[in-house]
Design brief:
234 residues; 10 helices; Rossmann fold; eight-stranded mixed beta sheet
């Protein structure tokens, strides 16, 4: 392990906005902050939004800057990447941002029923040969549903048309999730408002994909069956 990475890991231990748990601490166990993130970390009752596989936290930070009336938590397993996001949030005094270092498979140990209002999944590994490891597979969706509020939103941005189409089929096959929007090329869609965060927030990798000429796709879906979602006005 390089000296720079060791330094970052040590610094991570001092960050007040970065929460780390070992596998043993959360495997089939509840993390101490489960059900009380807003109260004990953010000190308010604002809606809680997660970014899964957040990397350096670019998207998490950008969303937090855009909307101070939401609380944001970026989640990733790579401590060296999270160091950048957590450090930037502290430097900018972004009080509506936190990060968790853990595996997404263990996410249900961190959040209580109805605690989360939105999830962003931005450019995840499409896992072309392992459907069960895709962050939008039924296996993972079931985990999210254990803590999402009724009518909660899930957003997927990806350059992988295969993952986009796969996710759409999964969502359309379920009665507990409703597809709200599907866009195979968000930057080629001239009807999308320019101020839409789907367009205005770009990660390093997203810019790379655009430079390569890859269309960026987007899906938005909601917890609840179609009749319930329609009644609630989504």
């Amino acid at each position: 392990m390089g000296k720079d990475k060791i330094r970052r890991f040590r610094e991570n231990e001092t960050f007040s906005n970065l929460f780390q748990a070992t596998f043993e601490e959360v495997y089939h166990r509840n993390y101490p902050l489960k059900g009380s993130w807003n109260e004990k970390v953010f000190g308010n009752n604002n809606p809680l939004v997660l970014e899964l596989g957040c990397g350096k936290g670019e998207y998490t930070l950008a969303l937090a800057r855009l909307n101070k009336s939401f609380n944001y938590i970026g989640i990733d397993v790579k401590g060296a990447r999270l160091w950048r996001g957590a450090k930037t949030a502290l430097e900018e005094k972004l009080e509506n941002v936190a990060f968790i270092r853990t595996r997404i498979e263990l996410i249900a140990s961190f959040f209580a029923p109805y605690e989360v209002s939105q999830i962003w999944i931005t450019f995840p590994d499409p896992q072309p040969r392992k459907e069960n490891k895709r962050l939008t597979s039924p296996r993972f969706l079931d985990r999210y549903l254990s803590f999402l509020a009724p009518g909660a939103l899930i957003h997927l941005k990806t350059d992988s048309r295969e993952l986009h189409d796969y996710t759409r089929k999964v969502v359309e096959s379920r009665e507990d999730i409703t597809l709200l929007e599907t866009d195979p090329d968000i930057y080629g869609n001239k009807t999308r408002p320019a101020h839409d965060p789907v367009l205005t927030v770009r990660t390093f990798y997203e810019n790379q994909f655009l430079e390569q000429g890859k269309p960026i796709t987007y899906l938005r879906f909601s917890t609840g069956n179609p009749a319930t979602v329609k009644a609630e006005g989504h």
